[in-house]
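User: I've been going back and forth on whether these two constructs are worth ordering. Before I decide, could you fold them both?

Assistant: Sure. I'll take them in the order you sent them. The first construct and its structure tokens:
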Amino acid sequence: MILSLLEQIDAHHPLVPLDIGAWRRVKVNGMTFSIRAYHADGLGRVSVMTASGMLGLMKMETLIVNPTEKDLPLYSYDRIRALGNDTLIIELYDTQLAPVHTRPLSVAKALYARLPERDPGVHWYDAMKLPESVSKKGKTADTHALSRLASDFTAAYLRLNGESVAEPGAKRAKAAVYVDGLLEKGGPATDPFLKALGPKATAELFRTVLFDTAAAEETAE
């Protein structure tokens, strides 16, 4: 699914692979994460993580879009397949400089209302998370529909009418609020990295590779 989503992004905003050095492979909780990062022309930073565990019985993939060059919400896609379960999480965070008409996202989401909902729990970042976010947990039989939902929802996101951003710094600063919160307060996907890599290395991975907020941090300091 990750390749399909990257192709969708590339069709709108050509992707240029970035050299991320030793961060291409990271071991966390016995799982090896393969990491890639791209500059998406006219959009911003796109990053991808994939991993498998339990002798291949568990597969995880993550795709993050931090739109520093277009005024859209921050986009985070996670897919976890394990023991006959298929979980899809697409979260959008308010890092916009101005309101964006998000009805197309609600329409795409509503088309798949029949798919089983997943309780996302309560977290510190809920105030930043947009209501159009998706949280589903189905079975193997739902995999095709969940993939269609991810594809349709991402297509709707890429068609949103956010304005072009001349100076990425303002968008990076908005995203840095979310990223700093993850580093300081944690989260379900962040805690394993903090435990395995420590705060300093995790901050480098998040700020310089995954989210591209390092410049905003330097300005703040």
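The second construct, handled the same way:
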Amino acid sequence: MLFDAIFVTLFVTGWAFCGLVPWLALSVWTRGAAGLPNLPLAMFAGVVGGLAVPILGRDDATGIWLSFGVAVVAPSLLLAARRFSLRAMHHPPVEGNTAK
């Protein structure tokens, strides 16, 4: 029982750290404009993405490595979607030429 709790804690911590990596990379790339409120969101997405792999049935050694890969990819996609949606909201497309 105690060993199960230790391993679950290590996996959740590892997935959360994998969720931190894309946020940290985006923060360095944009010189701090990744947004501090996005950090818990990215870490949560990493845990959810990593946990989805064993729940969906891949619970062998390959599934462990795959879960850590998904724990990096899921927050990356989430941060990209948030970044592009905020950019589209602040810079709407210009329709046609308005000069007369």
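Notes on the second construct follow. DSSP finds three helices and no strands in the chain. Helices lie at 2-29, 38-55, 61-90.
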